[in-house]
Design goal:
The complex is a heterodimer. Chain A is an alpha/beta fold. Chain A contains 16 helices and 20 strands. Chain A is 37% helix and 19% strand. In chain A, the strands form five sheets. In chain A, strands 1, 2, 6, 7, 8, 9 and 16 form a seven-stranded mixed sheet that branches. A four-stranded antiparallel sheet of chain A has the order 15-10-19-20, covered by helices on one side. Chain A has a four-stranded antiparallel sheet with strand order 11-14-13-12, with helices on one face. In chain A, a hairpin with a 2-residue loop joins strand 19 and strand 20. In chain A, helix 2 (68-78) packs across helix 3 (85-104), helix 5 (216-223) crosses helix 15 (492-516) and helix 14 (462-480) runs antiparallel to helix 15. Chain B has ten helices and seven strands. By secondary structure, chain B is α+β, with helices and mostly antiparallel strands. In chain B, helix 3 packs antiparallel against helix 6 (165-175) and helix 9 (213-230) packs across helix 10 (232-241). The termini of chain B are far apart. Classes of the chains: A alpha/beta, B alpha+beta. The interface between A and B is large, with 63 and 55 residues. The structure holds flavin-adenine dinucleotide (FAD), iron/sulfur cluster (2 copies) and FE2/S2 (inorganic) cluster (FES).
Amino acid sequence: MNEKFETHEHDVLIIGAGGAGLRAAIEALGQGATVAVVCKSLLGKAHTVMAEGGIAAAMANVDQADDWRTHFRDTMRGGKFLNNWRMAHIHAHESPERVRELEQWGALFDRTSSGDILQRAFGGHTFKRLCHVGDRTGLEMIRTLQDRGVNLGIDVYMECAVTRLLKDGERVSGALAYWRETGRFVVFKAKSIVIATGGIGKAWRITSNSWEYTGDGMALAYDAGAELMDMEFVQFHPTGMVWPPGVQGILVTEAVRGEGGVLRNKDGERFMERYDPDKMELSTRDVVARAIYTEVREGRGTEHGGAYLDISHRPAEYVKRKLPSMYHQFRELADVDITEGPMEVGPTCHYMMGGIRVEAETAQTTVPGLFAAGEAAAGLHGANRLGGNSLSDLLVFGRRAGLSAAEHAKQSGQVTIEAQDVLEATREMLEPFERPAGESPYDIHRDLQETMHNYVGIFRNEDDLKKGLSELDSLKARAEDVRVEGSRLFNPGWHLARDLKAMLTVSEAVALSALERQESRGAHSRIDYPNYNEGWSKQNNIIARGEHGMQLKQRSTEEMPAELQRILEGQ
Amino acid sequence: MSDAIFKIFRGDRGGGKLVEYQVPIAPGMVVLDALHYIQAHQAPDLAVRWNCKAGKCGSCSAEVNGRPRLTCKTRMDALPLNEPITVQPMKSFPIIRDLVTDVSWNYRVNRKIPPFTPRADVEWKMGQRDVDRVQEFRKCIECFLCQDVCHVLRDHDKGEQFGGPRFFVRIAGLEMHPLDRLSRTDLLKNEMGIGLCNITKCCTEVCPEDIHITDNAIIPLKERVVDDYYDPVRWFLRKIKRQPKDK
Ligand SMILES: Cc1cc2nc3c(=O)[nH]c(=O)nc-3n(C[C@H](O)[C@H](O)[C@H](O)COP(=O)(O)OP(=O)(O)OC[C@H]3O[C@@H](n4cnc5c(N)ncnc54)[C@H](O)[C@@H]3O)c2cc1C
Ligand code: SF4
Ligand code: SF4
Ligand code: FES
């Protein structure tokens, strides 16, 4: 079949070339599987490259008292105990080994005076725990993984976008993708598929995320029958740039606060004293983001509607050495010298705690042959992620996903792809060209961002969420009629038309889950239900595709063994 | 605020031309903002690469008024606005469409470079001072602007014999890694053609990461090649000064 289409066959297909995808690829290859990695951008440009502050791992190089127990406890506390404790346990245990491995593959972290990997303080971490390279840790990580992967022989299909997963009965058997360069379709046949596509921030107006973050992987998995979990938990990072307009939302790393940065309102008040007097600026992100938002709403915001973040009390040379890219970012884009004066910052949509539901040990989704890791998967972070816990997540669970995917492929027989499914998937892609009239995808995208920003933002309430859901319905209808101009050669408008569908799917899942959870927990803040609700403390919202559209149900979290319980209760 | 006039290359392998667009200027605006504005309002199919919008990913390279630049870091208020701003794709690479070029050659060159190879039984301890020098090279965001500007590639099209400044930077990062044991001087001399570089420093001038490509990477590498190939005395001295490197 499929003589018409370019076809590639591999044991394991990995969608996404960020930290999670590349780490999975290296592991699957190590197991003897043949591996393909597909990504929307060029290799090395995935979101992971932008990570700044560091990788959390209890190596105890700086604070000797640190160990996996404290990391486990911090992660669970940060996640308001909604985390999958099995994942939090594995993560705390395995992160140090994964970081050491990166070093052995050539990564060069900043050093302590005794020559070990240096670690810095970050919000919610009891000890100095983030292994880092100045404020460009993600670049170091992705380059190391990419060079290792390429050297070992993974096949990378770059600027190639997956638009649909293909199935053989209940199990996955491949995917349809298209080359951005030529607009031509390509079929991937695989026994196992790992989704490592990252997050969904592009559905909001103010975000630190790039054009890639449109929730593709979650939507692909959902369409293939997998479950999504914890979709109401969207992290707004407290410190994005607020001015000038073009850079609104671009991240100001938490490392600024980790290195001693102080937050003030326009009256010069160090307002975190009122929100979290113990941890102050290093409180968890949900708390700091709400604090800044509240200051601005109550009229104590800065000229451009943010708060001041000041690191200028530290020596200029120190700031330039520890935060070089922040120094350049502000000097070049905002005309601010951060060694001399404060930055203006405000919340920005940053990270998705929710995502595809997976089994902790194997990263297996509810669909046979389908695995997920990294930001696209849910569970580790619960209701709120601690800074630095994502990069370690990518390494720990990327590796496990690669391992399981390779094992699954070894045990499984040949898979087939139905020509009919492929044809239908290509037809779906080509429709927007064929409509004589219709709306531009850019207009629909803008309105979607406005909707999510206004109705499904940092603070939520029932009326807004219902309004948001009805807006989403009309946006979906408009997206059905989207029209694309131009040819199929590297056409961003065409691409956006496809991405819109994914964004609409995940946006609906977020709004539905947020409406259902009648309490405030972590990143999910309901003005109409401002407190924790015991009834919700052990319930995850689960989204799956039903006969009549999106279905929502609850699933109880698993009881934790007594010895882990004791760790949580410790100091 | 007033408008700016852009002349942007539109076309593909078959050819193309500069097309004019008018864009309202906002405070602090960068060229990439203008390209996005054009996509959203006038040319939905304008092909542009970008990811981070903050100078961290190296995707948005193009030639603005003839100079290789990251469009996300090129402020409009730093350009003369009384004349049109031209934006063209990087000249050294084959065009795909509009501002998007085929940079796959770089990825092929990269594959020739032997990976980091630690010495046996090392203790994983390194001083910050030894690491500093290598970290400079590892700042590279692979924007390929240095490759674009280098005359050996741009005007003489020597891609088959010459690796280009980006990959000298990468090799320097491996060669000077305190725990690496390989020598890559053969590769530098033969496959990477480091001898073709005549130290014009154009690459250093365009590097958005301020890597001192020529002074800190290329010249020391050239010295290593010379030492290993032509100067037995210095070769010997270096051998006892540095840890020996396998060939
Ligand atoms: C500015 C910034 C700073 C951050 N700093 C930190 C930090 O200091 N510490 C920390 O722990 N975390 C940090 N984070 C979070 C962390 O960087 C991300 O969560 C993490 O990198 C995600 O990695 P990933 O491997 O899951 O996905 P990504 O690295 O985003 O990779 C996703 C991949 O999937 C591909 N893809 C997506 N859709 C498709 C499709 N349809 N077809 C084909 N390919 C597709 C993309 O092309 C890409 O290659 C930061 C995030 C941002 C935005
Ligand atoms: S210094 Fe060498 S590598 Fe750099 S631009 Fe000049 S010739 Fe090219
Ligand atoms: S060395 Fe500088 S100019 Fe060259 S690719 Fe790297 S960052 Fe770009
Ligand atoms: S968009 Fe990343 S460097 Fe310009």
